[in-house]
Design goal:
Strand order of the largest sheet: 1-2-3-4-5
Structural class: alpha/beta
Bound molecules: iron/sulfur cluster
Strand content: 15-25%
Largest sheet: 5 strands, parallel
CATH class of the largest domain: Alpha Beta
Order of helices and strands: EHEHEHHEHHEHEEEEEHE
Helix content: 25-40%
Oligomer: single chain
Radius of gyration: 24 Å
Number of strands: 11
Distance between the termini: 15 Å
CATH superfamily of the largest domain: Aldolase class I
Shape: globular
CATH topology of the largest domain: TIM Barrel
Length: 325
């Protein structure tokens, strides 16, 4: 249970030293966890390849996140049970998950506890080792379609896939060919960064899938997202739209970066028929350890010129508290 006052320590608290109290001796922000649908486990940052876009800069030498162990993952599964978190699925990502020496045990434990398991993989050499192939066949026999492997194939054409991932096409396609013959549940994760429509992309993947006879439906609906969720993908112009349902302001938008700021709205009133409500956007940030004045700026000069350089004054925490682990 949390302490009700800052801890008495023989030294001055360091940043992030105490889980409940900040350096300034104030209660750390918190958010109550009500449900955890998917628990994502990072199996470690090592990967057999180095992709241009990798979100975590994985490579054959990046071991900044060590391999998670079976014991550590079990503790998370226990936490789900004791906390009654209602978790449906355990997702495994990396790095390349099949580089982790205990990946089969990690997956097996998840499945044995009744979770679904989803493994993101490049389907290359780490997955193709005899021990791993045999283990996957065994898991498929025992747990069937509760285990899914999602293979990263950025584009249905070799050239664009390899623009991201180097000369990996043949090996990944061979991995998909092997998976297709096993009866394992398989999916493909493509990307939308080349300004093709979703329909064109799906058609391209459908041709490739048919050519190889992979048991994958290129027209399967995308995973459901909460309709209230606003998703903006900088690489997908289709998502560059106001973050609320129509009707939208008639004159479009004035700022186009990560979030769209609506243009002003005419709001005539008795006293001022030409009243205009300026475009308005509220973004909430979480400031945990620092209160006071500082400069917020964008390092892109043209953005600074357009107003993204200003002073921010962080005040005392409000009564609503936020917390993440
Ligand atoms: S295969 Fe995945 S984890 Fe490995 S470098 Fe590429 S994007 Fe990163």
């Amino acid at each position: 249970m949390s302490e009700l006052r800052p801890p008495h320590t023989p030294h001055v608290l360091q940043k992030f030293e105490h889980p409940d109290w900040t350096v300034a001796g104030e209660p750390r922000a918190s958010v109550a966890l009500t449900r955890l649908d998917t628990l994502w486990i990072n199996t470690g940052t090592l990967c057999n390849i180095t992709c241009a876009h990798c979100y975590i800069e994985s490579s054959p030498t990046n071991d900044r996140l060590a391999y998670i162990t079976r014991e550590e993952a079990r503790a998370f599964y226990d936490e789900i049970a004791t906390g009654g978190l209602g978790t449906r699925e355990i997702g495994f990502t990396g790095g390349e998950p099949f580089m982790n020496p205990q990946i089969l045990e990690l997956i097996e434990d998840a499945l044995a506890r009744g979770f679904e398991a989803l493994v993101l993989t490049n389907a290359m050499q780490p997955m193709r080792r005899p021990r791993i192939e045999a283990g996957l066949l065994d898991l498929n026999r025992r747990f069937g379609r509760r285990l899914t492997l999602r293979v990263s194939l950025d584009h249905h054409g070799q050239a664009l896939h390899e623009a991201e991932r180097g000369g990996t096409w043949d090996k990944t396609v061979a991995g998909l060919d092997w998976l297709a013959g096993t009866g394992l549940s398989v999916a493909i994760a493509g990307r939308t960064r080349w300004n093709e429509t979703e329909a064109d992309l799906r058609a391209g993947f459908a041709r490739l899938i048919a050519q190889h006879g992979w048991p994958i439906d290129a027209n399967a609906p995308a995973p459901k997202t909460d309709p209230r969720q606003c998703v903006l993908d900088p690489n997908d112009p289709g998502t560059w739209r106001p973050c609320r349902p129509p009707p939208w302001p008639p004159t479009g938008l004035v700022w186009w970066d990560v979030f769209a700021i609506p243009s002003g709205l005419a709001a005539a009133s008795n006293t001022n028929p030409a009243n205009v409500i300026p475009g308005y956007f509220k973004m909430r940030s979480r400031f945990v350890d620092y209160a006071g004045l500082y400069v917020l700026h964008c390092h892109i000069l043209i953005h600074e010129d357009r107003g993204m350089m200003f002073s921010v004054n962080v005040g005392k925490p409000l009564t609503t508290v936020l917390k993440h682990h």
